[in-house]
Specification:
mainly alpha; two-stranded antiparallel ribbon; 13 helices
């Protein structure tokens, strides 16, 4: 059997001791040295299980079924080897050589265990005897040290997060006129827009109230802000005023429609009409009641400033 066909356990699953032993011994009978097909393999307890032999790798070896049947239940390996040689004169086994191999196996498995090398690590690094163990020892130690360093780093990061909890995220929604005023102030500082701030606050508040939950996302307004900045001051002001005064139940798409379909001349004319209406309102109120007019006149003057 060519080495390419030798058994290798799947590293994706939990590796059983039996599978590890078959891999370690390279599908070769520990006693006769014969490379075996899988259906000819038995995993043999060197000290029989019936006599208290443990199921650990240092007491398990690959055995040819034919040899294992002869040895089965016999705690005297030497006698089993003698009987085998009588029955198989062409396939002799050397008991003294087997004793040397057993000592080497026990030494290897003890050292592997002491170094904490798992079945998986042994298979991944091709460690199957003392020689390969010594060669890979530094590599395995380095891998374990790296793993420990990673674990320490994770612990440090966890502790850092615990000591410095993340700051609460900034409020993402505008929920009131006060929120909107603060937002507009911030936006004007970073991305100025040529429009009266009071009108802008009033307009955004109208948009907020078109939402069922009475909230509007900052990101929505920021996106619209970029679109508004492409129009002139007169067009923006006229569109927002029209929206607030006549169509406050509409959403932001409606305002953009006004901006796209209003030329500069029409916007200036509309704003002039607004200013004249505000002045006419002020004169009429002054004729009705001096005291009332004093207050409402100030409001009307503010009304005109509010939009123009």
């Amino acid at each position: 059997m060519s080495p390419s066909k030798l058994y290798k356990p799947s590293l994706g699953d939990k590796i059983a001791t039996k599978d590890y032993v078959i891999w370690r011994d390279k599908q070769t009978c520990f006693y006769t040295g014969k490379v075996l097909q899988r259906n000819d393999i038995e995993v043999d307890h060197i000290i029989p299980e019936s006599l208290g032999g443990p199921g650990t790798p240092d007491n398990l070896v690959v055995s040819w079924k034919k040899f294992n049947q002869l040895k089965s239940g016999n705690d005297n390996l030497e006698m089993a080897c003698q009987e085998w040689n009588k029955q198989n004169p062409l396939d002799q086994v050397d008991y003294e050589q087997i004793k040397v191999k057993l000592a080497a196996l026990k030494m290897f498995e003890r050292e592997r265990w002491e170094l904490g090398i798992t079945y998986r690590e042994a298979i991944e690094n091709e460690i199957y005897d003392t020689y390969t163990l010594r060669i890979a020892q530094d590599t395995i130690r380095g891998q374990k040290e790296k793993q420990k360093e990673k674990e320490k780093q994770k612990e440090k990061e966890k502790q850092k997060e615990k000591d410095n909890p993340p700051k609460k995220r900034a409020k993402e929604n505008l929920c009131s006129p006060e929120d909107i005023e603060s937002f507009v102030e911030s936006q004007m500082a970073s991305n100025p827009l040529s429009v009266n701030r009071k009108l802008l606050v009033k307009y955004i508040d109208c948009l907020r109230l078109t939402r069922k939950n009475g909230r509007i996302s900052k990101s929505i307004i920021q996106t619209e802000w970029e679109k508004w900045s492409k129009f002139s001051q007169a067009v923006i002001t006229y569109a927002m005023w029209t929206h607030v005064e006549k169509h406050d139940d509409k959403k932001e798409e409606y305002t953009l429609g006004i901006m796209r379909n209003t030329i500069e001349h029409e916007a200036n004319r509309g704003l002039l009409i607004l200013k004249n209406k505000s002045q006419a309102l002020t004169e009429e109120e002054m004729q009705n009641d001096v005291l009332s007019t004093s207050n409402e006149s100030n409001e009307s003057d503010e009304y005109a400033k509010y939009y123009i």
